[in-house]
Amino acid sequence: MGLMTLDVPEASAGYSHYGVLARFETAKALYRACEAVRDAGYSKWDALTPFPVHGLEKAMGLKPSKLPFLVLATGLSGAGLGFALQSWVHIQGYPLIISGKPLFTWPAFVPVTFELGVLGAALGAVLGMFAFNKLPTYHHPLFRSKNFTRVTDDGLFIAIEAWDPKYDDRDTAEFLSGLGAVEVEHVPIDDPADDSDGGGAA
Amino acid sequence: MAHGPRIVHLDQLVIRPGSGWARLPLIAGAVGFVFTIVSIVLARSSPESTKQFFHSWLVAVVFFLCIGLGCLFFVLIHHATKAGWGVVVRRLAENLACTVPVLAVLFIPVVALGMYDLFHWTHADAVAHDRLLQVKEPWLNETGFWIRTVIYFVVWSGLALYFRNASRRQDDSGDEALSRRMARFSPVAVAVFAVTLTFAGFDWLMSLEPHWYSTMFGVYFFAGTVVSAFAALTVLTLAFERSGHFRGVVTGEHFHDLGKLLFAFTVFWAYIAFSQFFLIWYANIPEETNWFLSRLHGTDHNPANWRAATMLLAIGHFAVPFFFLMPRTIKRNRTLLLIGALWMLAMHLWDVFWLVMPNLHREMTFSLLDLTSLLGVGGVFLATAGWLLSRGSLVPSRDPRLVESLAFENI
How many CB atoms lie within 10 A of CB B92? Predict the structure, then answer.
């Protein structure tokens, strides 16, 4: 399935560090820092927050999600499939005259067509969201950081990955400090000493 | 957060004397007056024209009434949900809702004169030989009709004026208790609105064909009403942005939301319209199907006639706007959203025409009176709306949620 192999991003081969993790005190500081990271030209990075920060996707320069197109496609497929199935059943598969109406009575097919359209769209939305977010991912190098546990409480983070073309061990860390980060650390990719508490890396 | 603080001066938010908006009541009022006179003159030329006039006038008044009532619904829901995003456009809806008492003045005398021509159930000789109409007489009688009609207009006008006045009082005092009072009262008002709108649809439109009934008709009437209101609200908001009044006040985010609501209620209308058709078509009971038969099968002479009108409604009121209004980019594009909103207004007019006119013409026919009535009522409607809008700030300037609305962003 390929769903359980995302322990460490493939691009990390040959790198000793996952990258730099910086913590910010306020959403405003994080927002400004994201704008600066975006403008500095970094491409392999992410912002991580315990709650949605409005407009952050603009500050990060993220492109609009492709999900709506997938949902439209799966929704229309569901509706088309539902209509085709009923048409085939009523005309070919099991022709029955019901209350004196013709075999192909499209208005009768509309409720099921509509429901299957909704089902297709809903499945496309949920599964597409999982796929685009690379979920489920059971482990991530950032979990090696003690500070990072605060991401589910009050910690607002920016993580820049080591394989970003603009990345430099020292400069990137200093850059983030300069943006007002209160804590900056290098996150290792693999720490054998830490093997006991999960992660599963051999 | 993406932008710095926007500075909006309060004097930007009023209509200044001498501007185009200030002239609107006079110009629209003159157009309305002239075309009302023209309609009356045309109506008096022959008995057929008189009959045509009553039907055309009913279409025109109901069309503009729908805009006002849908705006009243928007105001009620806005308070009931304590919504923040739409505060900047709420005053426009409050003002449009207050056109209802003026439309009552256009509705009551004309329908009173045209009762016999409009409603078959007022013909005593027909009722005497019609078991079904006799059974329905406790509801379908002229006394009851007029008591109910007056109640509808009093309730709607009272609600519209109350919410506009309370909101305008807040412009002066900044009293937050007014917001709380409106929020507490609005759920009751929504319930009263739902009942009155449903029965108004039954009385004024469904009883045009008195043998027919559909329990869903009230919801159908409501769905079209709200579609037309959001379309009108969108057009008006765009107009005020273009004239500079709403510059820096209304953003793409607000248009995105207005577009979403327009889209949602277009889909809701289609859902209700099809459900109403579907159950009647499926059960195939004669007293229910006749209404659709007259709209799906024209005459022997011209069988495709009203059917084409029905198809236009299905395609133009649902299929086309469903795909047109769906993309985010269209809802955020001023020009394309304007096209969508104007299109939905035209389609709602077509919907009302389609509800009323098969009662008069077995074959679809257009009359000059359709146009003159529309211009007559529309002129008065625009004059009233323009006068109301010029009476104060165009946004509730001291609403506690105004700042939230100004800073609103879609996720």
Answer: 25
